[in-house]
Amino acid sequence: MIDQHMTLLDVVYKYPETEAIFHSFDAILEQCILCSNLFDSIDTVCKLYHLNQAEMLMRLNMVIE
Questions:
Q1: How far apart (Å, rounded) are the C-alpha atoms in residues 30 and 28?
Q2: What is the per-residue pLDDT across 33-56, written as a single tens digit (0 to 9) for each?
Q3: What is the per-residue DSSP string for 1-65?
Q4: 41 strand-pairing partners
């Protein structure tokens, strides 16, 4: 299970299928979230960009099931 304390790198390394979920936020942010924040936690990224953390975690966990 993916939680808010995991870094983006940890998530993508352990669950490569999550990369598409992270890239789905690129258009919203107008930048590559993995390029800019690979070493940040999900919690940090969501706070930094004002993203809905619950939604991101739900989408990430759904794709790994």
A1: 6
A2: 999 999 999 999 999 999 999 999
A3: ---TTSBHHHHHHH-GGGHHHHHHTHHHHTS-HHHHHTTSBHHHHHHHHT--HHHHHHHHHHHH-
A4: 7
Tally of CB atoms within 10 A around 14: 11
Both structure tokens of 14: 């352990």
Q: By C-alpha distance, which of 53, 59, 65 is closest to 19? A: 59
Report d(CA 55, CA 39) in Å as an integer.
Answer: 20
pLDDT of 28 above 90: no
- What amino acid occupies position 32? C
Rounded to whole angstroms, the Cα distance separating 50 from 63 reads 22
The dihedral over CA atoms of 61, 15, 64, 22, expressed in degrees to the nearest 10, equals 50
pTM for this entry: 0.92
